[in-house]
Write a structure and sequence with these properties.
This protein has 5 helices and 25 strands. It is mainly β.
Length: about 325
């Protein structure tokens, strides 16, 4: 079972950094990533189905699973004609952290990394991975004092929202269907509030058939959370020697970015959930699992198998 979430207005998905119209200081700025965290999706779907049903900290995972089932994703599905290269078909846009989308094609043989001709630079005719920088809309507002319910003098905040409609329109033509795709056990159709400021998105049931791809590579769609019990890390080798599931990271990492991710906010307890070290979306791993890492039952560490003509060596710099 899958859902296609189609934003009807620009969205704001903040992953890190201090940004809020309630913070002090002369100016704050927030920049959105092109796809939401799994906690954002899970929270929005749970609220749409259950309302403001309180979540008990010790039972959150089971409560989410009971309503949403197994989560997997997210990625952007587009059925249309890619303007670069002029090919019509089905495309999967996955998060290339930070701030980009990587384009893959859905074919009968499986998922294939889309490559395009490099611009002429010194006669180099090699193909390069197809990436998209999403269109953004800037917004400037006045800071707020929540206690007094009033504006704060001399305090501004700015934010850059992702404009999904403009992005798809600029990169594709003859588009028949598009949206943020996520697999879940919940059957929901309608409207939900998603991301910063609760922007609206339409939701419809949509089953995306993804055949198993040839090869050994998978790409992370959402952060793979590493154990918070990891020892002290000083060098990158310290991280790569850690184990995830039954793998040692240095044996499976083809190309990866490492960061720190928050797992959401519990509105019932008015408290943030734990921070985790994580492999970030767009990381390439030599595994063919569907999910990997901590909290994978809630969709964290979702993996998409794909094929690439350059194999692992061509992705080590990604």
């Amino acid at each position: 079972m899958g859902l296609l979430i189609k934003p009807v207005e620009p969205m704001f998905f903040r992953w890190s950094g201090e940004y809020s119209p309630n913070f002090s200081g002369p100016m704050n700025k927030g920049v959105s990533e092109p796809l939401p965290l799994m906690s954002t999706i899970a929270g929005a779907l749970y609220k749409a189905v259950k309302g403001l049903d309180p979540l008990k900290p010790s039972e959150e995972v089971e409560q989410f699973k009971g309503v949403l089932g197994e989560l997997w994703g997210p990625l952007i599905y587009v059925k249309g004609k890619r303007k670069k290269g002029g090919n019509k078909g089905e495309y999967l846009l996955v998060h290339q952290y930070p701030g980009k989308l990587l384009v893959l094609r859905l074919e009968e043989s499986g998922v294939v990394l889309n490559r395009i001709k490099k611009e002429e630079k010194g006669g180099d005719d090699e193909n390069e991975a197809d990436e998209i920088i999403p269109k953004q809309v800037s917004k400037i507002g006045v800071g707020r004092d929540l206690a007094k319910r009033s504006a704060m003098d001399h305090l501004l905040y700015s934010s850059q929202f992702v404009d999904f409609y403009a992005t798809i329109r600029s990169e594709f033509e003859n588009v028949e269907k598009w949206g943020i795709y996520v697999e879940t056990g919940v059957k929901y159709e309608g409207v939900l509030e998603l991301g910063g400021e609760g922007r609206l998105a339409k939701v419809e049931k949509f089953d995306l058939k993804i055949p198993e791809s040839r090869g050994e590579l998978s790409i992370l769609l959402s952060p793979a959370l590493l154990s918070v019990g990891c020892g002290k890390w000083v060098l990158i080798d310290d991280i790569l020697n850690e184990k995830v599931e039954n793998y040692t990271l240095k044996d499976i990492v083809c190309g990866a970015k490492i960061g720190v991710i928050g797992t959401g906010f519990n509105t019932s307890m008015r408290a943030r959930r734990p921070l985790y070290p994580a492999l970030m979306p767009g990381s390439i791993l030599k595994v063919r699992d569907r999910k990997i890492g901590e909290l994978k039952e809630l969709g964290w560490g979702s993996l998409l198998g794909f094929s690439d003509e350059n194999g692992c060596e061509g992705n080590r710099s990604r």
